[in-house]
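Q: What would this chain look like folded?
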Amino acid sequence: MGLEAFMKQDSNREKVERIFQRGVRVIYEEAFSFLSSDSLLMDKLLAMDKIPSEITSTFLHNLKNNTYVAEKDDLFQNNTKLDGQKYRALKTYLNWDPVTPGNFISHFTYRYRALSQLLWKRPQMKNTISISQISRIKTREELSIIGMVRNIRENKDGRRFLTVEDLSGSITILIPTTIPERGDIVCDEVIGIKGFPGTGGGILFANAIFFPEITPITWPVGERPYAVFISDLHVGSKKFMVELWERFISWLKEHKEVKYVFIAGDVVDGVGMYYKQNEHLDIETVEEQMEVFAKYMKQIRHDVKIFVISGNHDPNRDSEPQPVFPEVFGKPLKKIDNLEVYSNPSWIDVEGINILMYHGTSFDGVIDAIESIRNNAYHRPYLAQIQLLKKRHLSPIFGKNKIFPDKQDFMVINKVPHVFHTGHIHNVSLSSYKGVKLVSSGTFQNITDFQEKLGHEPTPGQFIVMNLSDGNSKIIDFSRIQ
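A: My prediction, written as structure tokens:
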């Protein structure tokens, strides 16, 4: 049956409409011919729990022969209780495969599909087509595409030219100076573009840019205890401020309402992180640094649950996502009953509150690449946090921050958190964005020579205390507590 005759039948047309209602963005021509010749395959497709956003002939062939394997996130879940208080890891990084050239393709394909699904749901992107279809359009009409940014260049007059690609091809995008978001676009992210095609379909003149963006979130109603968010202890550094830690421990003993402590990485200073680091170390082996860090953790009240992730200074692989500490280094922490170690990043549910913990190593590249935050984000880290939530990705620029090329891109923000907690910058900030509480912790390390040269102004001893019942938070400066 030809395609035209196939679509004239009401039952077939209804099935095709149902497919697109399930989130499918495009069915390629060869795949559509395949579907039209096999009604059972159409029914099999509609019976799937989750349909891919792009239907290819290869996918349909695998589906017909029962060889298609749906992509799944590596989730680790538990309902472990501590004194009646529930917590679980919604998403934490557990397994990975050896790197192959194919991993890079799978990694970026996963990223594109995950983020394009989010964009496709936006009302502004309803008339989205694939890039390969643009050359077939003969009339000058407004259209939308979703693509991954491969290259960015700027003219002297301020206009920007992007090369973006989807699974069907690539195209040049001209972004005029009138579009305010043009300076916020970075390489390797997935964006939506609305505009008019040029003659021949080789260029698209943009009149609007859309990011995957988070949807507004509300705080769940319920009575809950308090939590403290800290980061960047840098145990082992000569700049580690022991007196601040002692004040923190004393404060915790007095404030029984606090039942959770979240630590967003860089728990130790590490070894060999930079040239002549040994001259700045008080503890010269990372094994001993971890032992001392464990000793400090044991000073925290036993009825307080502690959640820890890695940072770029910690003894772990230097590419993200970072798994839990390797056995040889993490062994001292396993002896602490009220402490949980998760990957960097991790999504953790604590009494119905979804907390995204990420150390924040990607901030350096993102801040440098985005004009609107370049001069302010090291003093106001929430500006960088907002950009990551808009892009729905924790490390959008591949190569600026070391990323392990898994078959799946674990750094996609596929679940909107109630709290987004980061460290790395050593500067405290507290804000919110579309209902998400943005928490950036200070540090227990005094300003280093390197930070001073860069003009950074850390905020040692300043951390966030939050009432998990309603999200109300405040900054406490332990450097001022006697």
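DSSP finds 13 helices and 20 strands in the chain.
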